[in-house]
Amino acid sequence: MTDIPVKKYRVRRAKKWLQRTLIPFPIGACKVFAKWNKADRNDWPPASQESMPGLDRYEYSWLSQNGEDGVIRYLFDAIGYESRWFVEFGFGPVQCNCLRLMIHEDFSGLLMDGSDENVDFFNYTAKKFGIERVKAVRTFITRGNLQELITSNGVPRDIDFLSLDVDGNDYWFWEELECVSPRVVCIEYNAGLGPDLSWSVPYDDAFERYAQHPSGFFHGASLTALEALGRRKGYYLIGCDLTGTNAYFLRDDSRIEGVSVLTPREAFRPHANWLGRGISESEQLGIMKSMRYEEV
Q: Helices 25-37 & 116-129, crossing angle to 10 degrees?
């Protein structure tokens, strides 16, 4: 079996710690402010992607990481806005899926993350921008506190968008979530588990990805597990991004002409980063099978 790489992750974590320690808060906040002020792209959909199929045609990143800005923009261009509310679990102040909705589409929302730094940078910059309709909350989410966290922060039941990326209990949090009914859901899946297995990490209140395994390979749930959960909750799978990071779902009452309901195998994209590091899909699956995933 392929050795499970860990050194790169440890170096990256050390580098981030040094940055937090050595760079004064005002300098970091200026970086966030500058990112929010940069121009969005006008040539959309990108002409260079005209021949690409499905959601690929629309991908681009402005303040998102893996083309989410373009896909989310496309989906709401097609189905329209209703509540203009979002909820996002796990975010970065210069890179998350809801920043464009907040800055350009006048959304209200709630952001939740376990990092003091992320929350402080976001709230500081939002105040500078005069944005009062979006709040970032520092919290460690569990199944026990999830619903209360959302309802106590004034989020209505009917929201337009949910983004879920906590690198761990993603499956379990979406399963638990009943206090909101998003029309569009973007959720991270673990592409290393392949398109066929219905697996997730076991639920753990204190789950932290790199504490569980320093490689970071032990996290999240498979696309098949999330697709089955989505169907039970009234959602259908419409695609995954090119990097093999996110899966997109629409609520059953939201339909777009030309956008099909896909099976996990039809929608699946392998993990581009791991492939780029020379770890094949079969090697990734071998690594996953050596870890403590459970069938769901």
A: 60
**Structural contact between residues 265 and 240, judged by C-beta atoms closer than 8 angstroms:** no
pLDDT at 7 over 60: no
- Strand-by-strand arrangement of the 158-164 sheet: 134-138, 108-113, 85-89, 158-164, 181-188, 246-251, 235-240
Q: Are 286 and 1 in contact (CB under 8 A)?
A: yes
263-285 tens-digit pLDDT? 999 999 999 999 999 999 999 99
The two tokens of residue 2 are 């392929």
For the whole model, what pTM was predicted?
0.94
pLDDT of residue 2: 61
CATH of domain 7-295: 3.40.50.150
Q: Report the range of poorest mean pLDDT among 21-35, 75-89, 134-148.
A: 21-35
Query: Which structure tokens are listed for 232?
Result: 């039970």
The band of 6, judged by pLDDT with boundaries at 50, 70 and 90, is: confident
What pLDDT, on the 0 to 100 scale, is given for residue 271?
97
What DSSP string describes 198-215?
Answer: -EEPPP-TT--HHHH-TT
Of 98, 158, 154, 165, the closest CA to residue 126 belongs to 98
3-state secondary structure of 26: helix
Pairing of β 158-164 and β 181-188: parallel
Q: List the domain boundaries for the chain.
A: 7-295
Spatial contact of 251 and 234, defined as CB atoms under 8 Å apart:
yes
In whole angstroms, give the CA distance from residue 263 to residue 268.
8
Q: What one-character-per-residue DSSP string does 115-167 give?
A: -HHHHHHHHHHHHHHT--SEEEEE----TTTHHHHHHTTT--SEEEEEEE--S
Q: State the pLDDT confidence band at 210, using cuts at 50, 70 and 90.
A: confident
